[in-house]
Design a protein that fits this description.
Blueprint: H1 7-27, E1 33-34, H2 36-45, E2 56-60, H3 61-73, E3 80-83, E4 94-98, E5 101-105, E6 116-125, H4 129-150, H5 159-172, H6 177-188, E7 198-200, E8 212-213, E9 220-225, E10 228-233, H7 236-244, E11 261-265
Parallel strand pairs: 2-6
Antiparallel strand pairs: 1-2, 3-4, 4-6, 5-11, 6-7, 7-8, 9-10
Helix pairs in contact: 4-6
Length: 267
């Protein structure tokens, strides 16, 4: 086994990936935005949330698709690789990984990747509220199926959950993760981003609260993050309020949950 990577080192590696990613997007005029805890970190802490150790960005679907095509021809850096479920057993969105490292998720089974940042597509949603809710319910079912198909044997946040998971484990292996990811991608094709008034992260988002007017992402600002500046949506505060409520208020200590994974350097 290689040397374990500390949380501090993980943050530095993720920042390095984010800087390379941002420069690549600027080179090819691709839209991206800091998102979720990373956006909160930029606004509230000017960097990582102290108990958070991952980096998230979103891209409008046309830019996301273009990004995924471009990186097949020209990678974003010497030690970095962009992967999604078409390439490896992983989630229904892209990860930019550091190939010098190895990383394993604690609760979900994926291929052994490296320290990464997550890149999510933003997709169009129907104007009709009932149709939005139907689409969100379908996506939520696929999220649960994905978690069921990929949980680790012997892991669980409580003894009861661990017991139930162990009993159900053989049945969970019968479901194809790639099939689930393809179904989620199919949902995203229904309403093109550029023709939609509302947008959201369909493949792995906070549904239904995340869906919001596309105008939130029409104007671009810059946000500081660990001494560097990255693109953020000018309406980002409105978006975060929908997802988290008062995001400027620190959560109780028991809710300050870190992302569960183990990382090490390759030998």
């Amino acid at each position: 086994m290689g040397r374990k990577i500390s949380d501090i080192e993980v943050g530095k590696l993720e920042l390095e990936i984010l800087i390379k990613f941002a420069k690549y997007c600027e080179k090819y005029n691709l839209r991206y935005f800091l998102a979720y805890g990373t956006l909160i970190g930029s606004i509230r802490h000017k960097g990582f949330i102290p108990w958070d150790n991952d980096v998230d960005v979103v891209m409008p679907r046309p830019d996301y698709d273009q990004f995924m095509k471009l990186v097949k021809e020209e990678n974003i850096g010497e030690y970095f690789r962009v992967l999604d479920y078409h390439d490896v057993h992983t989630f229904p969105f892209a990860k930019v990984i550091d190939t010098r490292t190895k990383l394993s998720e604690k609760y979900l089974i994926t291929d052994t990747l490296g320290v990464y940042i997550d890149v999510f597509p933003l997709d169009g949603m129907p104007d009709n509220e009932k149709k939005r809710k139907r689409l969100e319910k379908k996506a939520a079912i696929y999220y649960k199926l994905y978690a069921f198909a990929n949980y680790r044997f012997g892991e669980g946040s409580t003894k009861l959950k661990k017991f139930v998971k162990n009993v159900m484990y053989p049945f969970s292996r019968l479901i194809s993760s790639k099939w689930i990811c393809e179904k989620l991608d199919k949902l995203c094709e229904k309403y093109p981003y550029d023709q939609s008034e509302f947008v959201t992260n369909i493949v792995w988002g906070y549904l239904p609260s995340e869906c919001i007017s596309k105008e939130v992402f029409e104007a671009v600002d810059e946000g500081e993050f660990e001494g560097h500046f990255f693109k953020i949506p000018k309406g980002g505060g409105k978006w975060l309020n929908r997802i988290y409520g008062d995001y400027m208020k620190l959560p109780p200590e028991e809710e300050r949950i870190i992302h569960y994974f183990e990382a090490e350097w390759k030998e």
